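Researcher: Next sequence.
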Amino acid sequence: MWIQIVLIILLCMVIVYSVYQKRQTYRKIDRLLDHVLSREEIVDSDVKEGEFSALVSKIRQIQDVLGSHVRKAEEEKDQVKSLVSNMSHQLKTPLANLSLYGEILGKEDVSSERRAEFADKMQRQIDKLNWIVESLSKMVKLEQNIEGFEINEIGIRQTILDAVDTVYGKLEKKEIHLAVESFADCRIFHNRKWTAEVFVNLLENAIKYTEKGGVVSISVHPYELYTEIRISDNGRGVRQEELTDIFKRFYRSPEVENLEGSGIGLYLSDLILEKEKGYITAVSEYGKGSCFSVFLQNCKN
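Model: Next structure:
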């Protein structure tokens, strides 16, 4: 009889202790999950050494993953806000100009000569809007990998010629001499379409910031691993303290805010070359000119 009573008491104690342990375990897990939900760091004092170590390790891993996703989401949110703000700033001026020109053209007392003049101005603003939208579209495609980006082993000569052909009209209009040093064609890893875009951006900048009658030069220098395509000018140059900023998205020097531009070209060029496992460098002497060097990987012989 007494033995049965003792066994019953022991069984009850085991059950009570088991319930107590489960409640303790639940409270500890609940406390750890609160840390995760409140994004607080789980420290060693939150649990006794050796106790639930495997569980704590897993929860810490989950916390790290969730924290990484949250940080990435916050960064993307900031990038979207910045992009929308910058787009708004870039589009504001041409849209305001179009509104003004439309208002002027709507007046009955405007002469036919003035109408033709403002119609031409409106077309230039429309072209600028198209260019900005296209550049933003290219930038988003490259940043988000929306469009396939194929790299081939092809000669660099035709890519350079494609870029020169695109800007030739601007060179002639500003009477800028283009000097191209003779070079042997070489096969380089690159995407012809996108790399030509890089060269067009660099050439257009050189033309824009070089005075009428100036010189823009192109030279090609092959090395063991890379080939350097150098585009230089004798224009206004860039201040040393701005050389690291000019490749940032939407960056424009305060000194050239009155000139046409969006601050996308160099950022886009850097993005393209990054995908080609190449890179770009810039050296400049303010008031004397700039030199931008594009480095692309050579094909293996």
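Model: Helices lie at 2-37, 53-105, 112-144, 157-173, 192-208, 265-275. Residues 53-105 form the longest helix (53 residues).
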